[in-house]
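If you are new to this repository, start here. Below is one unmodified record pulled from the training split, so you can see the exact layout before writing a loader.
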Amino acid sequence: MPKKKAFTVIKRVIWGIVIAVFYLLCALTIWLAIDTFVLKSPVPSVFGYSALTVKTGSMSGTIEIGDLIIIKDTGDYEIGDIVTFLQKGDSIPTTHRIIDSREDGSFITKGDANNVQDALPVSKDIILGEVVKVLPEVGLFAERVQSEGWIYIVALLVILCGGTVFVQSFFRREDEQDKNNGKNVEKSKIEENEKKPEEK
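And here is the target side for that same chain:
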């Protein structure tokens, strides 16, 4: 009995995790779609975090082409921070390091691999976030996901759905086997009880 109870608990935990992951991915996908196509955000974000693929070598040595950067809008930036910003009139964000500040509160930025600083100062209102994580070469995969119409995300959701159905059917079979085993045990006990009077 203890083993059966432990197995039942494990099944429920695994099932709960599968369901939670599935709904989380669905929610994230829906939110990214709303943020991109409805809210028209220049950089879609989830819980204040955004992911971008690096397409130029201006930060080479620190961040390479094809890397995926995770940025967060902290609102608190200082010299030495690597920030992503979008200058007015630009459609593609720039990720450079803050090398100095100005009296008006704006910053001077420069790519680590560039010989000169950026021509325009960067005010806080155009900073999209600070780079908090760099994932080498992951951006190449992210680019394919975006260019191929989220096909990989759709495929992942299909796999999760299929996996959910499989796990559920597996657990149902196990439950049915447990019930059948229990019925067989009860039946055997009844048959034994019926035979005892005859033996006396």
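Two things worth knowing about this chain: Residues 22 and 160 are 6 Å apart (CA to CA). The longest strand covers residues 127-135.
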